[in-house]
Write a structure and sequence with these properties.
Layout lengths: L5 H4 L29 H8 L13 H14 L3 E5 L2 H12 L5 E5 L4 H13 L3 E5 L13 E7 L11 H10 L3 E5 L4 H4 L9 E5 L13 E5 L1 H14 L5 H11 L2 H20 L4 E5 L12 E6 L5 H6 L5 E2 L9 E3 L11 H7 L5 E5 L5 H14 L2
Parallel strand pairs: 2-3, 2-4, 4-5, 5-6, 10-11
Antiparallel strand pairs: 1-7, 6-7, 8-9, 9-12, 11-12
Bound molecules: pyridoxal-5'-phosphate.
């Protein structure tokens, strides 16, 4: 197969339909198992000639999603899981065993922090949370098996130095796993930058329509084979219908990211020129294609935050992100609610901070709606 560009691959990532009636859209294999002509036919599953036996082990729709994202990330293989969290866990299981140590960025997604700090710790996998802009290599130990970070962080959209990290890790023979949810493979491809495993909450940009909870893990064929085995054992596979929805989303990933990034740039520019804004967090230089669709804005004390949220009109308040519709969230009372005050303040998450997930609407309406809500909150 000749190499194709991203926008083409994101539409044509499916394997060929081998069914007799070839439908244009992918059918949903909403089935728990697959049937066989006779015992010899079934034997072919075990010899590897037939791909499917039981949906928990594998299903065409979940394969489409795992392999589709792998194609876009330029990784060897991928699996789809029940959520972003179970994709992270499958990746950790592929690399770590009891007695191993993880070095993770302190500003990782809240759920990831909990998973590492509360759950993995119970099974003898300890995590050191570090400031990746500081002397993080000092946290590396004899038994460090994994370095874990995010390509773009939440909510202050810090862009990680992925190449420097993967280079450091390679020299020490430590695996690197990167959460690429915010950047998506449209903007950044951590596997090409040397990461061993890349995870996505496909609930976010890959699904793109706020109607599915799903995860994807991609990486080398060897590590994905291990992760697939632990996913099968844990039963954290994705349902065929959810996989089908996420695949439908994936087809427009490039289009959505292009529009959402340019809308985010316009909103970031408008807000940074606004007299009642102290700071806009929106990265520059993430990729040639844009800088993503997440931004955070810190308002002056004059802006009454409760009134601002209540005045946003059609913009939704939601503790999630990445859909085609613009939404806002309040990190202080959602994602960072349980983070101790000192840590929160050190991270720069205060009461005037609002996170914005920019959608595909007309940028003029978007800017007007923010300006009107600010005006009402003074
Ligand atoms: C939402 C999210 C997750 C968790 O994904 P789920 O699909 O909710 O399990 C992990 N990482 C990041 C960056 C996220 O935004």
């Amino acid at each position: 197969m000749t190499e194709r560009y991203f926008n083409t691959k994101s539409v044509h990532f499916y394997s060929k339909d081998k069914a007799e009636n070839k439908s244009k859209a992918r059918p949903i294999y909403q089935t728990s198992a697959f049937v066989f002509e006779d015992l010899e036919d079934m034997e072919q599953y075990f010899t590897g000639e037939k791909p499917y036996l039981y949906s928990r082990y594998g299903n065409p729709n979940t394969d489409d999603l795992g392999k589709g994202v792998a194609l876009l990330e330029e990784a060897e293989d991928g699996i789809a899981t029940s959520s972003g969290m179970s994709a992270i866990l499958a990746g950790v299981f592929a690399v770590c065993k009891s007695g191993d140590h993880i070095v993770a960025a302190v500003d990782v997604y809240g759920g990831t922090y909990q998973l590492f700090a509360s759950e993995l710790a119970k099974y003898g996998v300890e995590t050191s949370f570090v400031n990746m802009n500081g002397n993080w290599t000092e946290a590396i130990r004899e038994n460090t098996a994994l370095i874990y970070t995010e390509s773009i962080t939440n909510p202050l959209v810090r862009v990680e130095e992925l190449e420097a990290i993967t280079q450091e890790a390679k020299e020490r023979k430590i695996a690197v796993m990167v959460d690429n949810t915010f950047a998506t493979p449209y903007l950044l491809q951590p596997y090409s930058l040397g990461a061993d495993l890349v995870i996505h909450s496909a609930t976010k940009y890959i699904g793109g329509h706020s109607d599915v909870t799903a995860g994807v893990l991609v990486g080398s064929a060897e590590l994905i084979a291990k992760a697939r085995a632990s996913m099968i054992n844990a039963g954290s596979n994705l349902s065929p219908f959810e996989a089908w929805l996420a695949c439908r989303g994936l087809k427009t990933l490039a289009l959505r990211m292009e529009r959402q990034s340019s809308n985010a740039q316009s909103l970031a520019t408008a807000l940074s020129e606004h007299p009642y804004v102290t700071q806009v967090y929106y990265p520059q230089g993430v990729s040639e294609k844009g800088n993503g669709a997440m931004l955070s804005v810190e308002f002056k004390e004059d802006v009454h935050i409760e009134t601002f949220f209540a005045s946003l009109d059609w913009i939704k308040i939601a503790p999630t992100l990445a859909g085609v519709e613009t939404s806002v969230s309040y990190p202080l009372r959602t994602s960072h609610r349980s983070v101790p005050k000192e840590v929160r303040e050190a991270l720069g998450i205060g009461k005037q901070l609002v996170r914005v997930s920019v959608g595909v609407e007309d940028e003029r309406d978007l800017v007007a709606s923010f300006e009107a809500a600010i005006a009402k909150s003074l």
